[in-house]
Amino acid sequence: MHIQHFFDTATATFTYVVSDPATQKCAIIDSVLDYDMHAGKTSTASADKVIAYVQEAGLSVEWILETHAHADHLTGSHYLRENLGGKIGIGEHIKEVLKFWVPLFNTAHDTSLDGSQFDHLFKDGEIFHIGSLEVNVLHTPGHTPACVTYLLGDVAFVGDTIFMPYVGTARTDFPGGSAETLYRSIQKLLSLPESTRIFTCHDYPPQGQSENYVSTVAEQKATNNMVHEGVSEAQYVAARNAKDEGKSVPRLLLPSIQVNLRAGELGKAENNGVQYIKIPLNRI
Ligand SMILES: [Fe+2]
After folding, report:
1. Cα dist from 31 to 14, 70, 91, 137, 229, whole Å
2. Distance of CA 10 from the midpoint of ligand 1 (Å)
3. pTM of the predicted model, to two decimals?
């Protein structure tokens, strides 16, 4: 398997293209649609880099995968599907996320509650293929109720379930998030063979250090600053909740969630032909 990563410095997001050299089929994991919130302007610069890579490498896209509905960047999935084809997949528990947010945004007219805007909703334990590569889907909730990990042999794309050991883990204070649940999901990952490589969705390295995206289960168990081996669930939950207490809302939470729950479509234009991002007031 070949793994190509892309890093969006504006949102610290890693996008991956995983390809099968035997068949030239690939999957794109956790893409980005650039968004300038002050100007209300989207740009496809990041997604276009992925498109150029896929085309130059002669790959055909089978899947456009989301590890979860991101709260810090808009997904490029819809744009990528329009340009490259492929099916957009996300965990089936996205329905719980839709149930919370769609009424708040009042967007039921263009955001289906049944998740049918995604081409496929993965169940825990489901197996699918990228060319000849077998992918196992693990439901790894906690950061959000719908987070999944895509496991291909000794490679795990974990989204925000766990970060590089010096960052620790993702926050669990979003609606439906739970530190207890995240701890259990992380234990599922840490029970994989020690050589399993963990590819994260973000990195926030200390100042002066460049970003990293891959670690191993062994490294995580030895050095993760929040969930290394020996940290109990109770200790982790107390530390996680203390860290999340009073944390500011991510800059792009409201724009991201409403677009990402449409798989990256920008929503139905109003009768003046303009599409809008809606910001509910005093609700978060
Ligand atoms: Fe996230």
Report:
1. 8, 10, 16, 18, 32
2. 15
3. 0.97
